[in-house]
Amino acid sequence: MRLPTHVTLKEVGPRDGLQNEATHIATADKVQLVNLLSQTGLSYIEVTSFVHPKWIPQLADAVEVLQEIKRHKDITYAALVPNMHGLERALQADVDEVNVFMSASESHNQNNINKTIDATFPILEEVVIGAKAANKTVRGYISTVIGCPYEGYIEPEKVLYVTDKLLAMGVDEISLGDTIGVAVPTQVERLLETLLKRYPAEHFAMHFHDTRGTALANIMQSMEMGITKFDSALGGLGGCPYAKGASGNVATEDLLYLLDGMDIHTGIDLQKMLEAAQFIEQIVGKALPSKQMAILRNEKEETTS
Amino acid sequence: MRLPTHVTLKEVGPRDGLQNEATHIATADKVQLVNLLSQTGLSYIEVTSFVHPKWIPQLADAVEVLQEIKRHKDITYAALVPNMHGLERALQADVDEVNVFMSASESHNQNNINKTIDATFPILEEVVIGAKAANKTVRGYISTVIGCPYEGYIEPEKVLYVTDKLLAMGVDEISLGDTIGVAVPTQVERLLETLLKRYPAEHFAMHFHDTRGTALANIMQSMEMGITKFDSALGGLGGCPYAKGASGNVATEDLLYLLDGMDIHTGIDLQKMLEAAQFIEQIVGKALPSKQMAILRNEKEETTS
């Protein structure tokens, strides 16, 4: 097995996790969550989203959260930005990185963004140009890279098509999302074979949801093909609000257990990550789906009984 | 990626799953469960255990269950057998295969079986000889092949030591158990490298628990090294009653999702497996941990709300 010695985890819990929570979460709790995450050793936190509050009311306090968190100089604090209005607010809040997004699947893109794929590119390009002018790096999310809730399996060529456009407009990194968590390793292999024929692995991060339990297997496959950047959410928070049946992102602490066990360096402290997860679990008021959190709960029960 | 075209799943839910259930389960429900499993396309079901009811009261009705199930000629109905007294009862109940067990870790073996590893071999050998005399095949479980709750990491040489002895006494197949669900793929690789230097892959099945979410990744690694037999339990039932923090076996339906998605043939019908899992979930009276069952519950909620 050929595996990397170092891997970068990009924490998306505060955004991709909390945007799907039914519970109202106070701005102060979001700030506290990001501050706890900043102490774990993470180098990247996606803090919030500038999608219009009409669509994601959960993150309507995006500016406040970004202004109130305590920033560490070695951490990139990013946010999702859908358009020029969002970019204006994001720059006002001094985000470090601007994250644009669209889908590889035509119908998912239309359901999620209300535009065709080709009509989405100019919107994103405007944002990319604006972000670059403000000296920000840009990350591009591509959703439904393997399966779509409306179209089923997505051919790698469709992902390549969107990748080509995003990289050509100056996006620095592409995050490839298995939005509804349907991927199996052979599909990941096929997708990455297609993309890595044209671009180096450094251009890509993988973003797996663990809806069907395949996320860690898919991450293993990705690492064996040279990918060293992975999105994850503490506790296994999250999912896509527009994709039926989509459950959480792969849990940061479960991924850390895997990587630590294989001596793959992340710089992140598992215990501190679990403390942050315990904090947010208390706030959202329900058991989070990660395996590490289940183990903690079992140990507590054993201690108290 | 080099993967097998066919894989055999050995269903251990009725034994390894139910032996850990706190709920009393009626004999008729156990019989019904095995009958439902017999209709899924499985070729192997571990039905029960002849460990003394003092230790596993949950399976005290082993003889009755084996006598009352409706047997299919293409299915092997197996049971756990600890000693000659257990073998007598197992043969009386006409099991198809006799499954002996011990640990690779000295302290786990002593905690579980009350004997040293070396003192366990003669007990098992007597059972193996008796089973062979009755024309039964024999499966040998080795527990804690990667991690032990008392000793931590277990060196592959310790597993090889027990493997050598079991195969020498005539055991037909070894099931290698990550009893407490701590394994990561590099450890699986290291273990199998050691064993496969001496024995062909056909001698081994892998038995993973999903306590830390790594089971499917470990199964991928095992398949890439030529292993084609895996133990699993519907619903993700199970665990080891003597190992602290041990949660369920890898769920049969989650493993089926992975294998089906990669066109690896098992002969098992996922829908029928889910029906069996729904049946036993109702009986045990709590949500089973498998991802496929969570998806089913979500779909039901969406339909009824």
From TrEMBL, chains A, B:
UniProt domain Pyruvate carboxyltransferase: residue ranges: 7-274
Pfam (any one): HMGL-like
Keyword ATP-binding: no
Keywords carried by this UniProt record: Lyase, Metal-binding
CDD domains named among the record's database cross-references: DRE_TIM_HMGL
Protein name: Hydroxymethylglutaryl-CoA lyase YngG
Protein source organism: Lysinibacillus piscis
Entry's Gene Ontology molecular function annotations: lyase activity
InterPro entries: Aldolase_TIM, HMGL, PYR_CT
Membrane spanning stretches: none
Annotated family: Belongs to the HMG-CoA lyase family.
